[in-house]
Amino acid sequence: MKGSFYLSLKIKELPETERPYEKLELYGEKQLSNAELLAIIIKNGTKEETSVQIAQRILNLNDDPQMGSLGFLKNIELLQLMQIKGIGRVKAIQIKAMCEIAIRMSKSSNYKKIVIKSTEDIANLVLEEMRLKKEEVVKLFLLNTKNQILNIIDVAIGGTNFANVNIKGIIGQALKIQAPKIILVHNHPTGDSTPSKMDIQFTDKLYNATKLFEIELLDHIIIGDNNYKSVFLETKKLLKNMKNNKKEGK
After folding, report:
1. Angle between helix 34-42 and 51-59 (nearest 10)
2. What is the pLDDT of residues 89-114, one digit of tens each?
3. Packed helices 197-212 and 231-247: angle between N→C axes, nearest 10 degrees
């Protein structure tokens, strides 16, 4: 019924309680549907459709339920948005800007006060931001002697495989602010957080390099889709299994 109601009326002709702007003002933003919130960003509809209907068509582009009803917008391309009638260049840019604002707001603004005590502490900070990325991102956490975060830096983005991750650059970032401890974090776009052979080899190289500068590599954490693993812990498990197999003559 509601769908046919929108078809027959433009936003201006709807009762005030059904208009996204007025509805938010009267009842608060939490009372609006995803389509209504998006319609506020879109602002204007076309001769054929209201802004709410256009917003719903954008939401219908989500073909991966795992990304949630709005999460997919983080990865949608400008050109894909602009293929929808009623979404031009400016509106597409506004929607992408809104997505980036949401991502940045989800990051802890007081991360410098956080003390890292476990792998889980790091995962809690970056899991939501990194788990659905379609490209690899390598983050460097710089810590003080008390394991408080001094800074978080993106050291590589896109198609990484550690080919373009500069160990000297990582060490340079730590030396620049005299950070005695570091933690490396990167994501696997496949969603599987199991360390690859290259992950383990790179971690070993970085660990040996940081020791020369008296910098402690505390961990290398891999983020998957709602899961994460420590390269350190997984490597220890692997070596233990190899040792046990050797004893058993396997």
Report:
1. 120
2. 999 999 999 888 887 776 655 677 78
3. 110
